[in-house]
UniProtKB/TrEMBL annotation:
<protein>
    <submittedName>
        <fullName>Transcriptional regulator, TetR family</fullName>
    </submittedName>
</protein>
<dbReference type="Pfam" id="PF17925">
    <property type="entry name" value="TetR_C_20"/>
</dbReference>
<dbReference type="InterPro" id="IPR009057">
    <property type="entry name" value="Homeodomain-like_sf"/>
</dbReference>
<dbReference type="Pfam" id="PF00440">
    <property type="entry name" value="TetR_N"/>
</dbReference>
<dbReference type="InterPro" id="IPR050109">
    <property type="entry name" value="HTH-type_TetR-like_transc_reg"/>
</dbReference>
<dbReference type="InterPro" id="IPR001647">
    <property type="entry name" value="HTH_TetR"/>
</dbReference>
<dbReference type="InterPro" id="IPR041642">
    <property type="entry name" value="KstR_C"/>
</dbReference>
<dbReference type="GO" id="GO:0000976">
    <property type="term" value="F:transcription cis-regulatory region binding"/>
</dbReference>
<keyword id="KW-0238">DNA-binding</keyword>
<dbReference type="GO" id="GO:0003700">
    <property type="term" value="F:DNA-binding transcription factor activity"/>
</dbReference>
Length: 212
């Protein structure tokens, strides 16, 4: 009976040249994903657009799922860098820490929704990656949680803090899917996200009532 091959873990770029190729691949995937979505985009076209061999593409991203999780991870890294530049734990406006998280999520959602086909591809890939695990998904997930915890002003998170940001993240994903499916408008999504963060995070981190 033939042995089923184990899924190969993506390689990680180490040299400057490898990192440059890696970034070109992500840019190409973002461009083509925005034009064609997950299903219609072809890996050969990504390799051609990025100017790399198809073997190089598959070395870093063995599947389209890995590739679009990588694109999502790169966007989260930019979000993290922007937050670090602005300073962490910076609740503005209302002064509520829940609103600081809402600001991050609303801003990230608005940027994603500017390219709906790419946003759909990233969310589809993220859902599939939950079943597979893997380095790229684990790192992307952890990076996003760090961004939210920094906005929340929690430098030394405990298990309950991780649980709260995880639930908040899952709610945000659901709201984005509703927009992409045409169930609600982008404006309604922004209001829903702000309400959700106040309901979920306000009592613990701001000492507020449920929807105050």
């Amino acid at each position: 009976m033939p042995r089923i091959a184990e899924a190969r873990q993506p390689a990680e770029p180490t040299s400057a040249e490898q990192k440059d190729r890696y970034r070109r691949i992500l840019r190409a995937a973002s461009k083509l994903g925005a034009e064609h979505g997950l299903e219609r985009m072809q890996m050969n076209d990504v390799a051609k657009e990025a100017g790399v061999a198809i073997a190089t593409l598959y070395r870093y991203f063995p599947s389209k799922t890995d590739l679009f999780v990588g694109v999502l991870h790169s966007q989260i890294q930019r979000l993290s860098a922007a937050g670090a530049g602005a300073g962490s734990a910076a609740p503005v406006g209302s002064g509520r820490r829940a609103d600081a998280v809402a600001d991050v999520l609303i801003g990230a959602g608005q940027r994603m929704l500017e390219r709906p086909q790419l946003a759909t591809a990233m969310l589809q890939a993220n859902n599939a990656a939950q079943l597979q695990g893997g380095r790229e998904y684990t790192e992307a997930n952890a990076a996003f949680h760090r961004v939210l915890l920094a906005a929340l002003g929690v430098p030394e998170p405990e298990d309950e803090d991780y649980r709260m940001v995880r639930i908040t993240e899952q709610t945000w994903y659901g709201v984005l899917v509703s927009v992409l499916n045409g169930v609600i408008t982008a404006e309604q999504a922004d209001a829903d996200i702000r309400l959700a963060t106040r309901l979920l995070l306000g009592p613990r981190y701001d000492g507020t009532g449920a929807a105050s």
